[in-house]
Design goal:
This protein is α+β, with helices and mostly antiparallel strands and 419 residues long. It contains 14 helices and twelve strands. The protein has a single domain, classed as Cytochrome p450 (Orthogonal Bundle). It has a five-stranded mixed sheet. A three-stranded antiparallel sheet has the order 4-12-9. Strands 6-7 form a two-stranded antiparallel sheet.
Length: 419
């Protein structure tokens, strides 16, 4: 057993850490990066189950620098996704639901990704953009009539959820159920959502069953949605099974909904906190919107981490990692690495290299398929806000999700007339 180096007051495997302020989080990860760059290597952390009835894992190495995160993400031969991609241990009974391509290694991962990419062609994405614009326009118009409201509930959450449901052919009357399931799955450990393993498994099972039924229906009665394209796509004579479609449905509905919802929410929060940058963006939207969207994702880092498991003994930087050990890539920290992003804790839409951020997966074979769609949703939403309700501001502190995986906001008040 190697000698593991730890920092006792930084307990990333404990939910209590994720209730601390954003400033405390900045300070903790800056300390970890400094330790790593001084030649001491990665720190090793103990872990506990974030939900009642969960499994306590053996601990994990923390990759906190930009270079270490990128090196691990781009070396799938050495670091496997197949044992799970979150810090905590995945209960065996949940593997059926969460067994999408994100937890596969090559060659199976490569084949699954080729199948799924058939639903993300430029033509398909162009047709989806019509849904993005129409939904954003309608949502903002409704808020303009409503007045002061909850920004997450009325604007940030409905847009990506509705777009994903349009893509998959989910009828409007089922959208709320999809939303509730995603909250349970990613809210594990937060008192507002799943506090025990049974609730998590039931939520995932319900969504999985719904998705399988939808996939089978599109196989039997194809329409013009992405679900139909995916169920009929072939690579080397293979198609997605109903079970594989069910797992991908969960991935797309959860990742495509929660991450963009939180990017939009944190973006509005930071633009309110930086009125000079907001004014600059509003006055130069066509030229600056893409870079601003990337800066929002860099700063917010909606996916805080991804985990890998070492396939064999390997050295990353000065850290010796043994076969079978877990390594957590902290995208949140890599996106604040001072060597790449000076004053990385600051929100800055004029940052010259924001496009280098690791918010969509730091490259490698698991780079986010929906990155361009997410960017477009962020751009379109703020375009509609600035056009229809240009005085909208966040009027209170965000109610943050308690999670070390998703940097979420559950509720956040806004006003249309800040005075």
């Amino acid at each position: 057993m190697p000698e593991y180096r730890t920092i006792d007051d930084i307990r990333l495997g404990d939910n209590e850490f994720w209730t601390r302020s954003i400033d405390d989080r900045h300070e903790a990860f800056a300390k970890l990066r400094n330790e790593s760059k001084n030649g001491d290597g990665m720190c090793f952390h103990e872990e506990i189950s974030v939900i009642e009835g969960g499994i306590r894992g053996p601990g994990f190495w923390s990759a906190v620098t930009y270079d270490d995160v990128r090196a691990i993400n781009r070396n799938p031969q050495a670091f496997s996704s197949a044992s799970g991609i979150t810090l905590g241990e995945v209960p065996p009974e949940s593997l059926e639901f969460f067994g999408s391509m994100i937890v596969l290694d090559d060659p199976r991962h490569a084949k699954m990704r080729l199948l799924v990419q058939k639903g993300f062609t430029p033509k398909t994405i162009a047709s989806i953009e019509e849904s993005v614009r129409a939904r954003a326009k309608r949502l903002v118009a409704d808020v303009r009539e409503m007045g002061d409201c909850d920004f997450v509930e009325q604007l940030a959450a409905p847009l990506p959820l509705g777009v994903i449901c349009d893509m998959l052919g989910v009828p409007p009357e089922d959208e709320q159920q999809i939303f509730d399931w995603t909250n349970i799955i990613l809210g594990a450990g937060d008192p507002d959502f799943a506090m025990d393993l049974d609730a998590l498994i039931l939520g995932a099972a319900g969504m999985f069953d719904y998705a399988q039924a939808l996939g089978q229906d599109r196989l039997d009665r194809p329409t013009d949605d992405i679900a139909s394209i995916l169920m009929h796509a072939e690579v080397d004579g293979e198609r997605l099974t109903a079970s594989e479609f069910g797992s991908f449905f969960i991935l797309l509905a959860v990742a495509g909904n929660e991450t963009t919802r939180n990017a939009i929410s944190w973006g509005m929060h930071q633009l309110t906190a930086h009125p000079d940058q907001r004014r600059q963006l509003q006055e130069n939207y066509a030229e600056m919107s893409l870079a601003a969207a990337d800066e929002i994702v860099r700063w917010a880092s909606p996916v805080i981490h991804m985990r890998r498991t070492a396939n064999h003994d390997i050295e990353v930087g000065t850290t010796k990692i043994s076969a079978g050990e877990k390594v957590v890539m902290w995208y949140w920290s890599g996106n604040r690495d001072e060597d790449w992003f000076p004053h990385g804790e600051r929100f800055d839409i004029n940052r010259p290299n924001t496009k280098d951020m690791e918010g969509y997966g730091a490259g490698g074979p698991h780079f986010c398929l929906g990155a361009n769609l997410a960017r477009r949703e962020i751009q379109v939403m703020f375009d509609e806000i600035f056009t229809q309700i240009p005085r909208l501001e966040i009027s209170g502190e965000p109610d943050r999700l308690v999670s070390g995986f998703i940097n979420g906001i559950k509720r956040m008040p806004c006003t249309l007339d800040p005075g």
